[in-house]
Design a protein that fits this description.
Blueprint (H helix, E strand, L loop, with lengths): L3 E4 L5 H12 L3 E6 L2 H5 L6 E4 L5 H15 L4 E4 L15 H26 L5 E6 L12 H21 L4 E8 L5 H14 L3 H10 L9 H12 L10 E4 L9
Parallel strand pairs: 1-2, 1-4, 2-3, 4-5, 5-6, 6-7
Bound molecules: nicotinamide-adenine-dinucleotide.
Nicotinamide-adenine-dinucleotide binds next to helix 1, strand 2 and helix 6.
Length: 251
């Protein structure tokens, strides 16, 4: 059966990998993003709406469009997130903290709220939250991101409890460091903050995992497909790391 799948921030990175994976599985996929040029380059067949995941009016308009064009929703993925500032707690600017929580956490709430309204009457659905290993551990110099990603897990557990009786499963995926431009920026900022070379930080990330490599977006997409499938029918309220087992986060 072709599922109706919504993914926020789906024009790039992990979101795009998930969009491609669901499309390859025969599903209808709708993504949102704020990057106009990446939206223009979406693969054929993937529907896109320019919408900031943390904007209530934009997300409300999107859900109204989904209700009218699709008549419901089977899978909703709260993927939008920004890395936030890399700064010591003593140097944190409130505005940067709020911006990071806004995209990561307000965005997740707006996605879950809209999905709940569409899925409850149907008595089925899957809501996925893309948190992070930072939502399972602390990460030095990344307080806003860590707080947001822990917050997403608390939100997910509550959503799972509230919506489980309606046949809706909620789970979170916690990726490790995923290869791509975003992690390059994180590594550069951490290298600068610690007086190390970016390559040393990158090697430290890989060395600190059991699998001795960084995570690929496809690793995350495969977990999303599993959690959205009937094979995961009794999996709810879980925060599942896809990180090759990170056991040392401080290279
Ligand atoms: N990349 C990693 O190493 C990593 C690790 C753990 C968790 N994550 C999480 O996975 C998710 C996706 O990460 P990524 O690395 O693919 O991201 P990314 O930085 O590559 O960005 C993906 C897309 O998000 C879009 N975006 C940014 N702000 C948005 C907003 N407010 N509304 C809608 N779209 C927006 C960007 O335009 C971009 O196209 C995030 O929640 C991130 O925190 C990433």
């Amino acid at each position: 059966m072709s599922r109706r799948v919504l993914i926020t921030a789906g024009a790039n990175g992990i979101g795009l990998a998930m969009a491609r994976a669901f499309q390859a599985a025969g599903d209808r996929v709708w993504v949102t993003d704020v990057d106009q040029s990446m939206m223009a380059a979406l693969p054929p067949g993937i529907r896109g709406t320019l919408a900031d995941a943390s904007s209530e009016p934009a997300m409300e308009m999107l859900f109204a469009e989904i209700a009218s064009d699709w008549g419901g929703l089977d899978v909703a993925v709260a993927n939008a997130g920004i890395k936030g500032p890399t700064a010591a707690i003593g140097d944190l600017a409130l505005e940067a903290w709020r911006q990071c929580l806004g995209v990561n956490l307000d965005g997740a709430m707006l996605l879950a709220r809209g999905a709940a309204r569409l899925m409850k009457p149907a008595g089925q659905g899957v809501v996925l939250f893309i948190s992070s290993t930072s939502g399972l551990n602390g990460t030095p110099f990344r307080a806003p991101y860590v707080a947001a990603k822990w917050g997403m897990i608390g939100l997910m557990k509550t959503v799972a409890m509230e919506l489980g009786p309606f046949g809706i499963r909620a789970n979170a995926i916690c990726p490790g460091s995923v290869t791509g431009p975003r992690i390059d920026r994180v590594i550069e900022a951490e290298a600068a903050a610690k007086g190390m070379t970016p390559e040393a930080v990158r090697q430290g990330y890989a060395a600190g995992t059991a699998m001795k490599r960084l995570t690929e977006a496809q690793d995350v997409a495969d977990m999303a497909l599993f959690l959205a499938s009937d094979a995961a029918r009794m999996v709810a309220g879980q925060a599942l790391a896809v990180d090759g087992m990170t056991y040392n986060v401080d290279p």
